[in-house]
Amino acid sequence: MRKRLPLVLSTCALLVAVFGATPLGHAAGQKLAAAVPPFAKTAGYAKLAGNSAQLNGRKSTLKGAPGTIPVVGTDGKLPAAIGAVGPEGPQGPRGPKGDTGAKGNPGAAGEPGTSGYEIVTASTANDSTNAKIISVPCPTGKKAVGGGAAYNGAGPDSAMSWPVNGGQSWQAYGDEVPAHTFNWQLVVWAVCMNVTT
Question: Which CATH number is 145's domain given?
Fold first, then answer.
């Protein structure tokens, strides 16, 4: 039944459109409209015939006669009587520049940065003292972000170093094991930078 419904509705719409201008057609149209199932009206099938009233009584034509509505012919073109479609016109001039937009909100603050990279060094006397300790301060306003220690001469097997004074200085320590009479020197260095916390 549903497969035959579109054909039946199409036939009804055609009859209403053809005979709609006569009294007999008006009566037939009313009976056909009453016979259309409610779900078909909801889907929009019956509206096709009703839309023909929007043509204001004008007829369609393939020739483009005055007072008619031209339609596309079998060649896919409108009637020649209404004139050919002109060529595409040149591109118009560029429009005026738009207004500057409102200033955006400030972005979030960035992560703390560093600057002022600098290495400072200090050293002890070059003698045969058994144990030696020395520290080197960073310039005012900077902190030690790293450092190290070494020795010159026949000194200890190793030297230790670490930050002191809240990171404002770097300290080193070395000790002869075993003690000897040779001269040696302890050297310390610090990597200093401006640090924002």
Answer: 2.60.40
Tokens of 135: 């520290």
- Of 13, 47, 72, the position where a domain reaches its end is 72
Indicate the pTM of the whole model: 0.44
Strand partners, 144: 192
Token reading at 91: 């591109």
Domain range enclosing 60: 5-72
CA angle 120–124–128, rounded 5-degree value: 155
Calpha distance 7→45 (Å, rounded): 11
| Residue at token pair 């595409």 | 88
* Tens digits of residue pLDDT in 22-33: 454 454 445 545
At 159-174, the pLDDT tens digits run: 899 999 999 999 999 9
